[in-house]
Amino acid sequence: MWTLPEATEVAKPNERRGKEAELVGQKQDFRDTLQALDTHNAVQTLDKTIANLETELSAARTLQESFLNGSPVSQEYKASESTGRRKYLMVIGINTAFSSREKRKKLEEEKGIIIRFVIGHSAISGGIVDRAIAAEDRKHGDFMRLDHVEGYLELSGKTKTYFATAVALWDANFYVKVDDDVHVNIATLGQILSKHISRPRVYTGCMKSGPVLSDKEVRYYEPEHWKFGDKYFRHATGQLYAISKDLATYISVNKHVLHKYVNEDVSLGAWFIGLDVEHIDDRRLCCGTPPDCEWKAQAGNTCAASFDWRCSGICNTVENIQGVHNKCGESEKALWTASF
Fold it and tell me: Phi and psi at residue 145, in whole multiples of 5°?
């Protein structure tokens, strides 16, 4: 006897069609997700390509300006043009001046490492001090000559030119500026910075703030003090700081519109105000000279940089830097055994 099917049995084809439609919808959602991811990745790749092109364009402009102004062309740039750009962990520029030859020589002899000493030219280009630097550079090959007129009140301009030139010459994760009267442990510095490689916009140093220097009679007087109010914003002290490639590129691309204040560390901090920058305060970058850095080294917490705050560097550097190194320096094998 033929009987009518149950309602649930009749509904099964519709149920199957519903499930099929649901699966089709899920597949479409998955395709849409993949397409969105592809689009996102494509945008990221495009952004990176544009950033690289901006860096190359800025580098070309920097070098063109050097050509037009008659500045010497770095041997590193000539080499990079012929062999291609290698990736470095960090570029260390030691800020030096025409009066600091003894300190440069002592650092080179005692550390045994070729370092780039950053220097511009005198107001009278080609004068006796320029010729002396050129002779020293021919002998040691450790200078980075800038298209910049040397002068104490021109340190902000020098800092800007240094980063723009360095990012044009070397493809590095970090660009470091250090004064020539500061003791630096290179391996320790490298280990500190290597932990931040995955972060795109890093600005690290010993962050500080304090009263704005509005008295004309004091050192580091800031003529534009009224812009800051009563206190400076937080910024890295000028003895040593490091910035990642993206920030060095930003300075290079925008160097003609970045305002220069008298104090270069204030200028650098001001350039990053309003940007999506990660400020990292690391006190290992500003230890005191012995006994401070000595005690920390004995405790296994080696300092990356040491100096005397009262002198804004190591007091009587030529006479004292060897003693600081003996008590606070990392082992001779540290640099070669370090894993960055």
Answer: -85, 130
pLDDT band at residue 158 under the 50/70/90 scheme: confident
From first CA to last CA, the distance across the chain in angstroms is 85
DSSP string spanning 270-311?
HHHTTS--EEEE-GGGSBPTTTHHHHHHHTT---SEE-BGGG
Alpha helices in the chain (DSSP H): 7-68, 75-83, 101-111, 128-140, 155-169, 186-194, 245-254, 264-272, 292-298, 317-328, 334-337
Residue carrying structure tokens 């930003």: 250
Contact between 197 and 289 under an 8 Å Cβ cutoff? The reply is no
* CATH class of the structural domain 69-337: alpha beta
Cα distance between residue 297 and residue 325, in whole Å: 11
pLDDT digits (tens, 9 = 90+) for 306-316: 999 999 999 99
Mean pLDDT of the chain: 79
Is residue 92 left, alpha or beta, with left meaning phi > 0 and alpha meaning psi from -120 to 50?
beta
